[in-house]
């Protein structure tokens, strides 16, 4: 499912542009709604092409998100005078549409109150969603057949999970951009997945990995005077590499050591 | 219209460059894309597209120049590394391939952005223009780019033609390729290299995100029109070339329009139309086929019912009321009526004041369905030793499918039988 997250993070662009054109403001709420709708539409289109037109799954993802992203860029070009968005901010979050008085750092990360409040709101929303839907999400993820058998609507949960992904994406959009959101969506869970077999631990570990990456990434960016978002993504990559090599249970270096005693 | 003539006369050198560049790029990456698509690895192109950024930046930092060949070399190295990393992570841990792709893609890109911003902040004046790698610059192609495009396009096409057989086998039956002694690893490497080449060159025209579309979308569209690989390659190249020209045309008539996104938009529309309307494989034609099958089954069931009613007396010519038919078999009344109407138009039944009557033609067709049903039941009991009360359901389905040749074969195999397992006569 990781690439669906990637697809959504790109495909929400037209939703953001349209929300902007309709409301004429950079309010977070209409943008969140626009992006959320587009996220669900993306998921739906991918499913639709795959299931009804029998396009193979990876091609269906690739066609859908590039198509929507192209529409988004064209919309930006058409309404260039009216839309205060540009391609840079879409890709790596130079936050062109956060009002100037909220800028705090040089590097391109806004710690302005507006962004922080939006992110806090979305974080709480996501936490509530996971707390209340934990059992259903857990079952849908691990055993969709069983989940369906005991009366959980796997489709509904699938789409609500994807809505959550779209919300997270668009909330982080302003600060890190479409592609680096994917680093934050994919890398910490992948790191945690190599470290534990328990789903609850995996959730906690991935949150921890995300926090460490943000803090360390910030200092890395300050140190070499580069983009904070890029630095955070770099650190998530380093974290994953460490887990990949040295995870006590699954790291490829330590795992080999465990296998050796068989020889004696 | 004037624009149209002016554009297609190619009198302006700029138009020539942009159009030719777009066509070369779109068609050569479409050809490579066909192979990655068939190997079910369509999204790796996306990963490579993102992963070239750190390479470009590193090459710039190390060499200090913007020489396109040095930058391309850097792009090539990291693009290639990213594919190796994906393979390695997938093979050596329990991370699945799509996760590995997402991970490698975003982390490489993050490193690239970090380096790019660091270069930009370093105040080096020579750096401007590096971000062309991010968003593409199809509209500002110059002669030098065109030469690079042409070289790579020709290289890709020639390699594909030379290794056509090997690559085909790699896509369709890797295990077989291995057994007959093909160097599978080397071929994989070759395909990887081709993909990286296509991406590295194309990315300058359409940008990071849309590069994936240049690889995947024409191939996905072509896949819906044919089952032959050679034809698919040609079709994909044509679709790519067409959208290249069309994209260049749009951005010519409306200069504010970016060429790359328009190419992608057009190629996507072609792909989506293909998904929907391609003969045989498209969504619509499959729906139509399903409907046709459904009406055929309904009609044959009606004829069979009338024949079976006739068998009881036996008088096959007697008119039947609709409710007599529906008593024997639950068919929604509306459907049954519509089906009878259609059968009447085709001359299988006649409508009399006292009910519906089989024509001689209808009688023959009903008889055949009943025969096939009973033959199949007999076959199942004799050859698969199924209990005679288990075979009816299966025969209900297959009676609509068996061809005359198969029918003949069944009759011979069963030695010209007279009775089915339920002791009903086989007509």
Automatic annotation (TrEMBL), chain B:
A GO term for molecular function: DNA-binding transcription factor activity
UniProt key word Cell membrane: yes
Record keywords, A-Z: Cell membrane, Membrane, Transmembrane, Transmembrane helix, Transport
InterPro entries per the UniProt record, alphabetical: ABC_BtuC-like (IPR037294), ABC_TroCD (IPR001626), Fe_dep_repressor (IPR001367), Fe_dep_repressor_sf (IPR036421), Iron_dep_repressor (IPR022689), WH-like_DNA-bd_sf (IPR036388)
Membrane topology note: Multi-pass membrane protein
GO BP field: cellular response to iron ion; response to zinc ion; transmembrane transport
Residues passing through the membrane, by range: 15-38, 43-63, 69-89, 101-119, 146-164, 233-254, 260-279
Keyword Transport recorded: yes
Cellular component annotations (GO), alphabetically ordered: ATP-binding cassette (ABC) transporter complex
CDD domains tied to this protein: TM_ABC_iron-siderophores_like
Pfam families attached to this UniProt entry: ABC-3, Fe_dep_repr_C
Domain Iron dependent repressor metal binding and dimerisation: 360-427
Subcellular location: Cell membrane
Family stated for the protein in its record: Belongs to the ABC-3 integral membrane protein family.
Full protein name: Zinc ABC transporter permease
């Amino acid at each position: 499912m990781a690439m669906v997250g990637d697809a959504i993070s790109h495909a929400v662009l037209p939703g953001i542009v349209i929300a902007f054109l309709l409301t004429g403001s950079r309010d977070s709420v209409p943008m969140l709604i626009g992006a959320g709708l587009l996220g669900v539409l993306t998921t739906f289109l991918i499913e639709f092409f795959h299931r009804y037109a029998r396009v193979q799954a990876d091609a269906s993802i690739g066609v859908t998100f590039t198509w929507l992203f192209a529409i988004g860029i064209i919309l930006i070009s058409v309404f260039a005078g009216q839309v205060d968005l540009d391609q840079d901010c879409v890709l790596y979050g130079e936050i062109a549409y956060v009002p100037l008085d909220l800028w705090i750092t040089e590097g391109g990360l806004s710690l302005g109150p507006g962004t922080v409040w939006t992110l806090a709101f979305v974080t709480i929303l996501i936490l509530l969603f996971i707390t209340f839907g934990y059992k259903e999400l857990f079952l849908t993820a691990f055993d969709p057949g069983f989940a369906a058998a005991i009366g959980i609507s796997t489709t509904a949960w699938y789409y609500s999970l994807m809505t959550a992904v779209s919300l997270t994406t668009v909330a982080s959009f302003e600060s890190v951009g479409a592609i680096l959101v994917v680093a934050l969506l994919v890398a910490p869970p992948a790191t945690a997945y190599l470290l534990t077999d328990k789903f609850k631990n995996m959730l906690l570990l991935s949150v921890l990995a995300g926090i460490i990456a943000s803090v360390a990434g910030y200092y890395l960016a300050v140190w070499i005077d580069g983009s904070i978002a890029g630095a955070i993504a770099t650190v998530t990559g380093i974290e994953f590499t460490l887990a990949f090599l040295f995870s006590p249970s699954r790291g490829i270096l330590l795992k080999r050591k465990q296998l050796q005693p068989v020889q004696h | 219209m004037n624009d149209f003539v002016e554009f297609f006369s190619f009198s302006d050198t700029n138009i020539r460059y942009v159009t030719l560049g777009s066509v070369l790029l779109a068609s050569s990456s479409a050809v490579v894309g066909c192979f990655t698509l068939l190997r079910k690895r369509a999204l790796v192109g996306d990963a490579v597209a993102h992963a070239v950024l750190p390479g470009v930046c590193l090459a710039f930092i190390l060499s200090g120049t913007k020489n396109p060949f040095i930058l391309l070399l850097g792009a090539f190295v990291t693009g290639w590394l990213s594919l190796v990393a994906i393979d390695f992570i997938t093979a050596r841990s329990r991370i699945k391939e799509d996760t590995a792709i997402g991970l490698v893609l975003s982390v490489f890109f993050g490193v690239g952005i970090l380096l790019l911003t660091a270069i930009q902040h370093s105040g080096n004046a020579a750096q401007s223009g590096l971000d062309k790698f991010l968003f593409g610059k199809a509209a500002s192609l110059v002669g030098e780019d065109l030469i690079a495009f042409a070289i790579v396009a020709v290289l890709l096409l020639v390699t594909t033609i030379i290794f056509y057989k090997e690559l085909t086998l790699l896509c369709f039956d890797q295990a077989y390729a291995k057994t007959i002694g093909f160097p599978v690893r080397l071929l994989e490497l070759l395909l990887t290299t081709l993909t990286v080449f296509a991406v590295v060159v194309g990315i300058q025209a359409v940008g990071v995100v849309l590069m994936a579309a240049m690889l995947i979308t024409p191939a996905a569209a072509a896949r819906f029109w044919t089952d032959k690989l050679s034809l698919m390659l040609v079709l994909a190249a044509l679709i790519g070339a067409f959208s290249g020209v069309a994209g260049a045309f749009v951005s010519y008539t409306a200069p504010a329009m970016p060429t790359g996104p328009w190419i992608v938009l057009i190629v996507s529309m072609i792909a989506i139309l293909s998904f929907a309307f391609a003969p045989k494989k498209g969504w619509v034609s499959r729906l139509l086929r399903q409907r046709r099958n459904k009406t055929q089954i309904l009609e044959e069931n009606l004829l069979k019912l009338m024949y079976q009613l006739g068998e009881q007396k036996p008088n096959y010519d007697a008119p039947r009321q609709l409710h007599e038919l529906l008593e024997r078999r639950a068919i929604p009344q509306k459907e049954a009526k519509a089906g009878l109407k259609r059968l009447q138009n085709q001359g299988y039944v006649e409508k009399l004041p006292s009910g519906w009557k089989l024509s001689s033609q209808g009688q023959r067709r009903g008889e055949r369905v009943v025969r096939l049903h009973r033959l199949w039941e007999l076959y199942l009991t004799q050859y698969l030793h199924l209990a005679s009360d288990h075979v009816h359901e299966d025969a209900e389905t297959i009676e609509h499918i068996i061809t005359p040749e198969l029918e003949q074969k069944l009759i011979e195999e069963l030695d010209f039988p007279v009775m089915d397992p339920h002791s009903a006569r086989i007509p």
